[in-house]
Known about the structure:
globular; 7-stranded mixed beta sheet; 5-stranded antiparallel beta sheet; alpha/beta; Aspartate Aminotransferase, domain 1
Amino acid sequence: MGGGGAxxxxxKDNMDYTLFSWSxxxxxxxxxxxxxxxxxxxxxxxKKYIDFSSGLMNVNIGHGNQRITQAxxxxxxxxxxxxxxxxxxxxxxxxxxxAEICPGDLNKSFFTLCGATSIENAIKLARLYTGRHKILTRxxxxxxxxNGAMTASGDPRKLPVDSQQAPNFVHFDLPxxxxxxxxxxxxxxxxxxxxxxxxxxxxxxxxxAILLEGESGSSGCLQYPKGYLKAVREICDKNGIxxxxxxxxxxxxxxxxxxxxxxxxxxxxxxxxxxxxxxGYLPFGCLQVSxxxxxxxxxxxxxxxxxxSAHPVSCAAALETLKIYEDEGxxxxxxxxxxxxxxxxxxxxQKHPSIGDFRNTGLLGCIELVKNRDTKEPMAxxxxxxxxxxxxxxxxxxxxxxxxxxxxRWSYIFIAPPLCVTKEQIDEGLAIxxxxxxxxxxxxxxxxxGGA
Length: 452
């Protein structure tokens, strides 16, 4: 729990008076974080935890950067809030900076509060612009927990509220290479053909947009077949369908580029952003829109609005965050550290027979543990029940005990540290993960070093 008296009191107040996301409320055992700096969290006993998932893959610049504090204080001393119908200097500066960063004609920013509100407004705008109603999305994806965004997601967290799902969302399956049995060249053919069939069945003239993550995140970093997003872009252009890229998790350097889709050589019609835009220092999001789309609303009412849209203080945090990426060379560091992580995990594979696969783009990666490398049976299945999580729960508990905070889900251990991470810190983190994975190795029918 962390913190003897003080930490225990903090945990008790939180347990007694607040609710926790995606959890049973009893038996929760959170880390009581007293302060954080760089890639580390510290509890009330000053126990140090290396943050290997950047919070929820959002604290890209690392914890405790006081440049954000100063920028926020300065803005609050000038003006803390104005209605979105008024403007501030920082709003225009941020919009201009995002236009510089974004490729093509993605020059207009609609500022939101978070990832889900970016997605909700992307869906609304796609329907307003096209006059069509259907949105196509992928199974095994996550776009947020508000009603529309959750329905758009292909994540089992939506199943308990399925009776309340929003209408006119259609999901398609997109297999990934690790469990595809018919050769990589056939994977692209089949996935593109499958999408084209769904579009034909649903009626191209009914489809407003295809919504995809720039790179898969919490579903398990499930990588696109090579050439897939280019094919999707062509299909969209052919059928008058908009392409919305959800870069909430994969944006802002996380994949070694400003945006995940830039690894695939395409330009979408809209980009949903949040997380790395302010790195969690303040809640904030943005829907970046092409000039082509925004021009439609020059003489037509744009029916989107939020009380806190373009909040000046959040704009100030975002603008300073973008400067930090550049000043500290964080995207370049991501590329270098990605190469190092990939090399080191390859060595771990030789040591741990339970490691089945490692999927990583930049510093958005996860190790998948399996019961058998030949059959690729996962250590815990998709949407695992509690009794199917026994081994992975022990692995997760050991990771925490050894001084790491990271996202562990089903058979996945995520490796997504802040982009300021060093080789030494990667070594420190991977040593903890390696020790924890030994528990999974020992659960195998014939545990042995490496091989199998």
